[in-house]
Write a structure and sequence with these properties.
Length: 315
C-alpha cells in the first residue's frame, strides 16, 4: 500500500516569526520537516530574464539575486510535513490566524511517491565551496569529491540555510581540525554533516537522532557515499542509547534553539577540550541567547543567510 503524508502550507508576512510554532510542531506534533517555499522556475525566469537557469548548479549568488528582487511585502510560504494530520494542530492555526499571526493556511495530502518526483523537479547540486559540494542521488558526478544525498522527506539536503551554513563553517576550519579525529552529528537527520566529516576529514563519526526514520535515511545516504568502504568506528545511535562518555574533535548540532538549550549538557560533555562545535537551526535573533547559554565554549564566528544563523564555538 502506498504511503500518504500530509502537507501544511502556511502563508505569513515577512516580519512574522514562527519559531514557537515550528518548535511546537517538532515537539508535540511530530513534524517530519519544514521547507521554506522555493520559487517556481517560471517565476525565476521572469525575475532574472536572460540570466534565468534551467538545470545545472544553482549558485547562492543567483538565489540571493532572486530574493533581492522580490518585493518586501511578498508573503512567505512554508511547508510542514506530517505522517498524519496532528490532533489539535488546526485549532492552533485557527487561533494564530484570528490573532493576525498567519495570513492563511491550507492542507494537502500526497502520496509518498509524489514526494520523490517533486524533489527531482527542483533539487540541483549545491556548491558550498571549492572543496565541499552536495549532489542528489540521481546525478552522476565524482562521488569522491561530493557528498551524495537522497532527499528523503523531512531531512536535511543542503538546500536549507541552516545545513548550508554548517557546511560553510566546516569549510572554514577544515585545515585547523586534527588528523584522525572523530565527529558527532547530534540530531543527524539525513547525515549530511557527518558524511561531510567522513568525506573530507576521514573522521570516525557518530550519527545520533531521536527519530528512527531519520536514522534510516542517514544509513541509506551512508551506503550511497561509502558502499564497500570500511567505516569501522562510525556508528548510528538512537538518542535513548546515546552516552556522553566519549569526546569528539568536531560536534555538529543543527537543531532548534529550545533543543540546543535542553540538550546543552550532552552536547558540551561530548566536546573535546579545544574541539570545534558548530550549532545551527537558529533564527538570527536567537544567536545571542545561545551564546549566553553556552559560556563554557568560546564563540569564534557567526554566519547568517536570510533569517537563519549558525555559530562556531571552540572548547
Amino acid at each position: 500500500m502506498t504511503k500518504k503524508y500530509v502537507i501544511l502550507n502556511i502563508y505569513t508576512s515577512p516580519e512574522t516569526e514562527l519559531d514557537e510554532l515550528f518548535g511546537l510542531c517538532h515537539e508535540q506534533y511530530n513534524c517530519l520537516g519544514i521547507e521554506e517555499f522555493s520559487l517556481e522556475e517560471s517565476t525565476v525566469d521572469e525575475i532574472l530574464g536572460e540570466k534565468a537557469f534551467s538545470g545545472g548548479d544553482v549558485t547562492h549568488e543567483t538565489i540571493e539575486e532572486v530574493e533581492s528582487k522580490l518585493s518586501s511585502d511578498d508573503a512567505r510560504t512554508f511547508r510542514l510535513y506530517f505522517d498524519l494530520l496532528p490532533e489539535g494542530l488546526e485549532e492552533t492555526l485557527v487561533k494564530m490566524k484570528s490573532q493576525g499571526t498567519l495570513i492563511n493556511y491550507s492542507f494537502d495530502q500526497k502520496l509518498e511517491e509524489d514526494w520523490n518526483e517533486t524533489w527531482r523537479g527542483f533539487y540541483a547540486p549545491i556548491e558550498v565551496s571549492e572543496r565541499i559540494k552536495i549532489i542528489p542521488e540521481w546525478i552522476e558526478e565524482d562521488v569522491e569529491k561530493s557528498v551524495r544525498i537522497y532527499p528523503g522527506m523531512g531531512f536535511g539536503t543542503g538546500t536549507h540555510e541552516t545545513t548550508f551554513l554548517c557546511l560553510k563553517l566546516l569549510d572554514k576550519i577544515l585545515d585547523d581540525l586534527p588528523k584522525d579525529g572523530e565527529c558527532l552529528d547530534f540530531g543527524c537527520g539525513s547525515g549530511i554533516l557527518g558524511i561531510a566529516a567522513i568525506k573530507y576529514l576521514k573522521y570516525k563519526t557518530c550519527f545520533m537522532d531521536i527519530d528512527k526514520p531519520a536514522l534510516d535515511n542517514c544509513l541509506y545516504n551512508l551506503q550511497l557515499n561509502f558502499k564497500g568502504d570500511n567505516l569501522e568506528g562510525s556508528s548510528l545511535v538512537h538518542r535513548e542509547k546515546f552516552k556522553t562518555e566519549k569526546k569528539y574533535d568536531l560536534v555538529f548540532a543543527n537543531i532548534l534553539e529550545n533543543v540546543l538549550i535542553l540538550e546543552k549538557g550532552p552536547i558540551l560533555n561530548s566536546l573535546k577540550e579545544k574541539g570545534f562545535l558548530i550549532v545551527s537551526g537558529l533564527l538570527n535573533h536567537q544567536v545571542d541567547t545561545i551564546i549566553k547559554e553556552y559560556p563554557e565554549v568560546s564563540k569564534l564566528d557567526v554566519v547568517s543567510q536570510n533569517d537563519w544563523s549558525a555559530i562556531l564555538f571552540r572548547g
